Amino acid sequence: MPTTLNRVIRVQRTGSSDIQYPPNGASAGLTCAVGDLVSLDVNGRVTQAGASGANLGATVRFGVANESVTAATQGVNLGVEKLDDDTLIELPVTSGDAAIATPASTAPTLIGKQFEVRRVTTSGIYSVDSSATTNVKVEVVALGTTYPIADNFATVICKVLAGARLN
Question: Is the dihedral of CA 152, 81, 78, 96 positive or negative?
C-alpha cells in the first residue's frame, strides 16, 4: 500500500497513437516526465498543464508528454500524445492535495461523475480532485487497477472530456 502519492498516468487507447511535435517546441526550463499532462502556453510552446498546488484552469486543454525533459532549452522538440474519445487515463484520486479519507467507500461513488484535475503541491503529480467540480476535465469511468481500492491513493480510470483535450 503506498503511503505517498505516486505518478500513475497510464494511457490506454483502442485506436492508433497520435504523437505530435508542436512546432514551437518546449518552453524554457520545462521539466516533465513521460506521462505528465502538458499544454501549450500563449506562444505555442509545450509547458506543464497546471501550476503546482492548483487545479487546471477553465481554458486549459492538455495532452500527455511522450518523453522526459529536464530544464529544457526553449524550442527543443517534445512529443505530445493527443487524447481522443478512445483514450483512457489512470490517475490517483485526491481531495485537494490530500488523500481521500475513505477510499473503499468513496472511490466507487465517483464512477460516472466529472471532476477537475489537480497538480498536487508536494509532488507535482496530477490527480483527479474529487472535491472540485467547477472546471471539469475528466469523467471517471471505472476503478483503477494500480492499487487495491482501500489504499489511501486509490486510482480511477478516466475519459478526458472533449473540451479539455489539446487539439
Answer: negative
